[in-house]
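Need tokens for this chain, all 234 residues.
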Amino acid sequence: MRGVRQSEGRSLSLDTIHRTLVRHGEQVLKRPRRWRKGTRRYSRPIPGDRVQMDVCKITPGVYQYTAIDDCSRYKVPGVYSRATGANTLDFLERLIEEMPFPIQRIQTDRGREFFAEAVQQRLMDWAIKFRPIPPRSPHLNGKVERTQRTDREEFWDTVDPRNPKIEAKLSEWQHHWNWHRPHTALGGQPPIDRICELLDQTPLGEAVEASYDVSRERIRIANHRLDPALAQLK
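Here are the structure tokens for all 234 residues:
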């Protein structure tokens, strides 16, 4: 095929070559995997260093809040009827209670439910840094995006979202994810095993609180263009 292209000056697309090979029962072409520039994955070194948080709509009146630890993939989901500041506060209370390590940073997209002043003030009270990502950069919250996709495929597709016992069923799924489900990114371990592995390196709550500098934090706004300007006025 390469010789035909060189001798006759033809330029054949990969799709054309692929269809021709398939029609004649020959081995198909394997396309090289393309990596998008600027989307290199990262992983924080210890549990609690950064927790990604997001909200996804499952069906009208059913929203899933999700928080996943960047290092260990330990996850806390919650079901709410709407994505609001009040529900964000309620979910944060649950998150603090259920994460088995202190949280240093919360990372979210620019959803307004995360920018309520009461939400940000509560994070400051807990000595947790609020770190929203820039617009149009979902790869920065890639772990929570991927785990919500997995939730849809492995959990929500198997249940009725309107079931009165949906919260109990989601808790069962959460336990399976954190304690039993093997994760390729963790070498086949469940998240709890990674947490135990790094236990000696994970700081205690007192150390996290002592290193928190509230003077470097501020109330942020969802508008990404205005937010940096307000930072200059602080």
